[in-house]
Design goal:
Blueprint lengths: L3 E5 L5 H13 L2 E4 L19 H7 L19 E7 L7 H8 L7 E7 L8 H8 L4 E2 L3 E2 L6 H13 L1
Parallel strand pairs: 1-2, 1-3, 3-4, 4-5, 4-6
Helix pairs in contact: 1-5
The structure holds flavin mononucleotide (FMN).
Length: 160
């Protein structure tokens, strides 16, 4: 069995709940990507062109600082990486995480929650930032997903 870690970023708690369910259902650790500067409600206002998230997401080179890194990333073979869809892709802070860890030879499995959009270009974007890893297509989960559904979905990546 491969060794897995569940990493996630969640601004309003939806992805966090699912990430923790996934980690518990697999019996593995989870790691929360905590922004150095927490996102306020005003920061998350996508109807405002000048909100922090709008500004960050318009700039593909934006890399919001993260509070801490996974110190023992070398221990893991499979990294599940969860996030909310922001502007049809992964939040820039996911890019910060990916770029600041050595993910060489790891299997990266993205998962996301959204207001209805698909996972879009997020897996492709992550693959570009971590060229020496293998990034799966990933999946969007509804907030009502069960632990059993998550486990079934995830286990196939642990056998590969
Ligand atoms: C800045 C911002 C941009 C968003 N963009 C999208 C989007 O493009 N498509 C979509 O379906 N939902 C979008 N959403 C909704 C979130 O993806 C959704 O509410 C998600 O479940 C939130 O997860 P969280 O609670 O883990 O932060 C956006 C939310 C925010 C705050």
């Amino acid at each position: 069995m491969k060794r897995a870690l569940v990493v996630y970023f969640s601004a309003t708690g939806v992805t966090k709940r699912i990430a923790n369910m996934l980690a518990i259902s697999l019996g593995v650790k989870s790691f929360e990507i905590v922004p150095h500067e927490i996102y306020t409600n005003a920061d998350l206002d996508w109807t405002n062109d000048n909100s922090r998230s709008s500004i960050e997401m318009k700039d593909k080179s934006s890399r919001p600082k993260i509070e801490s890194r996974v110190r023992d990333i070398e221990k893991y073979d499979v990294i599940f990486i969860g996030f909310p869809i922001w502007w049809y892709r992964e939040p820039s802070i996911i890019d910060t995480f990916v770029e600041s860890h050595n993910l060489e030879n790891k299997l990266i499995v993205p998962f996301a929650t959204s207001g209805g959009s698909g996972i879009g270009e997020a897996p492709k974007n992550i693959q570009v930032l971590a060229p020496k890893s293998k990034v799966e297509r990933g999946k969007i989960f509804e907030s009502g997903v069960t632990a059993e559904e998550l486990r079934k979905w995830a286990e196939k990546y642990l056998k590969k």
